[in-house]
Amino acid sequence: MCSVLVAPSVHAAGLKVSLTERSQWPWPMTSPQAFDVASRAELAVFTEAMADADAGNAATGDAASLSKWKARMRQVVVTNFAKARETCAAGALFCEGAVPKDWEAMVATSRAGLAKLPAELAPWYAEQKPFHQGYVAELVRLAGLFPKVTSEILPLSPSERFGLEMPDRSFLLTFDDGPTPKGGGTDALAEQLRAQGIHAAFFLLGNNYEARRKATSVEQLRALYAGMCVASHGQEHRSHASWAGAVAGMESFHSRLAETLPEGQTKLTLFRPPYGQRNPGILQALERGGMKNMLWNIDSQDWHASNSGTKAAGRVLSLMLLWRHGIILFHDIHPKAASALPRIWNETRGSGVSWVDCRSE
C-alpha cells in the first residue's frame, strides 16, 4: 500500500509501521509441527498485545468499524490457535489445557503460556512483543478510519478476496506497482519466482505499464510475465474511492492490458485499488467486467524507508505464523522483495506451507 516511487501521500496505511527481523526464534520450522509451535507462540504474543490495547482503551475513530474489526480479528485468532493446536504433543509449547473456544479463554491461555516461557525464548519474546504491539496499533488505526477511508482492514462486499478463504498454511504472493523499466525489479522477481516454480500475481499500474510498453514489444511483455498472472492496479496510483475518473481510467487501461496477457491467461480477472481504497461504484464496475477485487491480509510494508529486506522477511514470516493463510503484498518496484523472498522460502521449506498458484484464483 504505497505511493509509487515516492513517499506515500496521506492514506489509510499511515507512515508508522511495525518491523522485526524475527532473528531470535531458536528452532527451525522444518516440519508442520515446528511451524505450529512457532504459530502458537506468535498468536499468543499478538493476543497479549491486543488484550493490553483493549484494556488501555486508547482506540479512536469509527466505533462500529472498530467493534466489527475486533470481533473479526478475535475470531481469526481463536480459529488459528485451534488449528495450531492440532499437532500438539505432550509437553509442547502452548499445548496445556483445553483448546480455547472464545477470546477470553484465548487471552488466559496466552498469558499463562507466556508467563512460563523457556529461558531460550526470552530473546525472541523481547523482539516480538514490541512488533505485535506496533502491529495491533496499525490495525486499530485502519479500523478507526474505516469506512471514511477504506482499506484492507474490512470488506465492503462478500465478493472481495483477502486470503482468509484459502486453506491453512496456503499463501499467495502478489506484487504491486510494476512494471519497472526493462532489466529492473520486475524482470528479476519474475525470474526468481519461475526458478522456484511459484506462480504469483502482478498488479500492474497503468502509467508504468504504458512506459514499459513503449520501450518494448507486446511479445516481450507477454514473456516477462510467463507463468505469472497479470492483474490491474488501476491507471493511476491515487485513491479509487475519491477519484471521479477512476472507473473510466480503469476500464480504458484494462482494454490495453488485455492485449499483453501472458500465454495461458485468457482474460483479466483481478483488480487491486491503490491503498486498498475503493467504493461500491468501483466494485460494481468490476462485477460488470467479470473481475474480482483482491486485497491482502499480510503486508510486507516493503515501500517504507525504515524497512529492509531482512525486516520485510521478518515481518512477513511473523504474520504468516499469525494469519496462517492469506495474500502477501510486496512491490516489484522496490528491491526489498528480492532479498526477503529467499529467506521466507528457506525458513518455511518443509513446514507444510504451500504457495498458491495465482492461475487458480
UniProtKB/TrEMBL annotation:
Q: Which domain of life is it from?
A: Bacteria
- Matching InterPro entries, A to Z? Glyco_hydro/deAcase_b/a-brl (IPR011330), NODB_dom (IPR002509), Polysacc_deacetylase_ArnD (IPR050248)
Instruction: List, in alphabetical order, the Gene Ontology terms for molecular function in this entry.
Output: hydrolase activity, acting on carbon-nitrogen (but not peptide) bonds
The UniProt record lists the NodB homology domain at 169-356
| GO annotation terms (biological process) | carbohydrate metabolic process
What Pfam families has UniProt attached to this entry?
A: Polysacc_deac_1 (PF01522)
Protein name in UniProt: NodB homology domain-containing protein
Q: Which organism is it from?
A: Archangium violaceum Cb vi76
